[in-house]
């Protein structure tokens, strides 16, 4: 560099000397006579121009070109140093959304579903409905023929008549007993008067007094016999009423409006009272499905909250529903909250027993930070991420993880929003190493 400066100074000195010579030649000369104008010759001018051009060319090659070369060398060295740093892909720490979609499996069931069992034993005489038929409340479904029940009714009627006769006989005996009581009372009073006058002996009077007391006891016994007979009549009548009620169950009717989902019997089948299920009816105008909400989201589920049902066999179709009730307690085995979601089904599109996916929009009180799953580094001392600071230096930071969304992870502590994380850090990425970060384009459609 000193040589270059020396050459430049020499060139500048020579140029200044030439300029002084030109100025001296242009000055007028006085030799005692008239003033004459002196002009340089053409050859001198050409020589001077050539000399100036040569000096300029020499300065260009001696000064500018070496400086340009030095700048290129410095740029090349800088680029070499930059290219020698490991290039890494970085992505920022983002904050999740204020709400999240919770998708849970469930089975669709009818809001009201009940089996129809026979209350009368016998044979199925006629069936009026089959599987898939829609019925109204009180509609006749089947008729049962029960000849034994008819005989039981006739027997109960005869028993009732016999009990009524027993009551009548007891009432007649009571009337006779009361007559005997009155006669014994009058006789006892007369003998009592005779004893007072001394006309008869006391022994004879005691006999008649004892007869009167016996008749009174007999009347009381007859009254109790009548009460017992009447109770027996009441029992017989109650049994008869029961049998007649059972006879009414020979006609099977729908307990509510719905669809016949099961039919277990056909005409002529033997029916056992209380054991044979004839039909199963489901009310399909309104359906429900039960889901198990995890403990972490249980506090966010509220009655009346909107829900959406999607059935894998019906792509593109969604059914709107709402949370109708919850169990208000967690299952100790699964740590989940049993939740019921109701959905209207006026067209009967949904069927009981269908598998469905229920989507709930859960609000979040504390929106968590989210990082891509491929930035996580798992070591013996816990999960970590490689953070690149503003100067391009790497620092490994321990974090506390929350929920796992597959391609994204929740971070509960250890990071701040906006920090740059290395994606898939290699073995070249170590603590304190400088790297050349390249930002990753965020994927569209990610949700927190």
Category by helix and strand content: alpha+beta
**Beta-strand level of the residues, as a percent range?**
25-35%
**What is the makeup of the main sheet?**
6 strands, mixed
Number of helices: 4
**Helix proportion:** 25-40%
H/E series, N to C?
HHEEEEEEHHEEEEEEEEEEEEEEEE
Radius of gyration based on Cα positions = 58 Å
Distance separating the two termini: 62 Å
Q: Unreliable segments (pLDDT under 50, ≥5 consecutive)?
A: 29-37, 444-448
Specify the overall morphology.
rod-shaped
User: How many beta-strand elements?
Assistant: 22
Mean pLDDT: 82
Describe the structure.
- By secondary structure, the protein is α+β, with helices and mostly antiparallel strands.
- It is built from four helices and 22 strands.
- It has helices spanning 2-26, 42-84, 147-197, 202-248, and strands at residues 87-92, 94-95, 99-117, 122-127, 134-135, 140-145, 251-253, 258-263, 270-271, 277-294, 306-310, 318-330, 336-344, 355-363, 369-372, 377-379, 382-388, 394-398, 400-404, 408-413, 420-422, 436-439.
- Strands 1, 16, 17, 18, 21 and 22 form a six-stranded mixed sheet that branches. Strands 3-10-13-12-11-14 form a six-stranded antiparallel beta barrel. Strands 2-15-20-19 form a four-stranded antiparallel sheet, with no helix packed on it.
- β17 and β18 form a beta hairpin.
- α1 packs antiparallel against α2 and α3 runs antiparallel to α4 (202-248).
């Amino acid at each position: 560099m000193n040589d270059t400066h020396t050459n430049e100074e020499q060139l500048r000195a020579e140029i200044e000397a030439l300029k002084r010579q030109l100025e001296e030649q242009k000055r007028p000369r006085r030799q005692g006579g008239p003033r004459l104008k002196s002009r340089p010759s053409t050859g001198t001018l050409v020589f001077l121009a050539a000399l100036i051009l040569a000096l300029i060319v020499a300065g260009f090659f001696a000064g500018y070109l070496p400086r340009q070369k030095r700048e290129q060398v410095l740029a090349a060295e800088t680029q070499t140093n930059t290219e020698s740093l490991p290039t890494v892909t970085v992505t920022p720490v983002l904050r999740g959304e204020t709400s999240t979609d919770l998708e849970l499996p469930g089975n669709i069931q009818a809001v009201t579903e009940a089996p129809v069992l026979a209350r009368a034993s016998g044979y199925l005489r006629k069936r009026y409905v089959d599987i898939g038929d829609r019925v109204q409340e009180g509609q006749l479904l089947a008729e049962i023929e029960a000849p034994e029940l008819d005989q039981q009714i006739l027997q109960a009627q005869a028993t009732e008549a016999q009990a009524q006769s027993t009551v009548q006989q007891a009432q007649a005996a009571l009337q006779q007993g009361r007559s005997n009581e009155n006669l014994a009372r009058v006789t006892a009073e007369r003998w009592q008067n005779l004893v007072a006058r001394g006309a008869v002996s006391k022994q004879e009077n005691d006999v008649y007094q004892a007869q009167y007391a016996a008749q009174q006891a007999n009347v009381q016994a007859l009254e109790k016999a009548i009460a017992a007979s009447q109770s027996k009549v009441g029992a017989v009548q109650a049994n008869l009423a029961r049998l007649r009620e059972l006879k009414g169950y020979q006609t099977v009717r729908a307990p509510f409006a719905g669809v016949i989902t099961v039919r277990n019997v056909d005409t002529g089948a033997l029916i056992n009272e209380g054991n044979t299920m004839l039909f199963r009816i489901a009310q399909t105008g309104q359906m429900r499905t039960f889901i198990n909400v995890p403990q972490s989201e249980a506090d966010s589920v509220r009655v009346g909250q909107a829900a959406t049902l999607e059935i894998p066999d019906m792509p593109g179709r969604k059914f709107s529903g709402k949370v109708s009730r919850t169990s208000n307690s967690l299952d100790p085995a699964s740590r989940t909250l049993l939740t019921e979601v109701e959905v209207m089904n006026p067209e009967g599109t949904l069927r009981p027993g269908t598998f469905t996916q229920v989507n709930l929009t859960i609000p979040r009180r504390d929106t968590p930070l989210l990082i891509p799953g491929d930035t996580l580094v798992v070591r013996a001392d816990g999960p970590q991420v490689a953070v690149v600071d503003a100067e391009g230096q790497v620092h490994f930071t321990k974090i506390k993880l929350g929920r796992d969304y597959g391609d994204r992870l929740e971070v509960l502590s250890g990071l701040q929003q906006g920090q740059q994380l290395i994606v898939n850090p290699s073995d070249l990425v170590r603590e304190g190493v400088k790297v050349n970060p390249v930002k990753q384009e965020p994927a569209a459609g990610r949700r927190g």
